[in-house]
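okkk here we go again. third time trying to get the glutathione bound version out, last two times i messed up the smiles copy paste (missing a bracket lol). double checked this time i swear
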Amino acid sequence: MAMQLYIGNKNYSSWSLRAWLLLRELGLPFDEIRLRLDFSDGSPFHTTVAGVSPAGRVPVLVDDGFAVWDTLAIAEYLHERFPDKGVWPADAKARARARSLCAEMHAGFGALRSHCPMNIEADLPEVGRRIWAEQPEVRRDVARIDAMWREQLAGGGPLLFGRFCAADAFYAPVCARLVTYALPLSEAARGYVAQVTALPGYAAWADAARAEHDFIADNEPYRQPPSAG
Ligand SMILES: N[C@@H](CCC(=O)N[C@@H](CS)C(=O)NCC(=O)O)C(=O)O
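finally!!
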């Protein structure tokens, strides 16, 4: 039986994108179960996710009835289950470095994440300009990401460790944010964003995100709901 991946809205759910893109780009078979990010008491999101994961968050990977939650744990599970698929780079030091970058993403960049929530179908360059001017911590997060990417890409690219691996999946939602808010980047970092957003899996996810036409106010601090009629 194929694995199942529980995810949230494709337009908004950055953690879901990481796990989904990893599975998709590595060609691992899975069925997706998409749930609207409705966190109200007793919502279908809460009841369905609670049925598979006590953590109550997406993504959740279910393999033959066994649930793995949290994107880092999902990446490690896939690495052990499919050791030849290239979840991590083959070289031990590159593998350790890729894990460092993923852990840095997983635990950090709070300013970028909170000020620039993922919103693939939106185009918010003016909001981005204001955030850039007013939020030094966002500038610091982006400077660190830009430097990290430049250092990795100096190894030859086109992706962080040459070919696609979990590190690219972890930074894909950052690429999405950088596009939506049009934040300033070095040329090398811009080239990396272009590579990631051109991945077939990313393009498929983004097309589906744009087709959702769902408006969840908690995820839309910078926009008004579309007017009826
Ligand atoms: N550390 C978790 C974070 C997952 C997460 O926060 N997911 C959000 C959606 S993007 C969620 O399910 N939130 C539900 C809630 O806050 O109740 C991971 O890496 O998977």
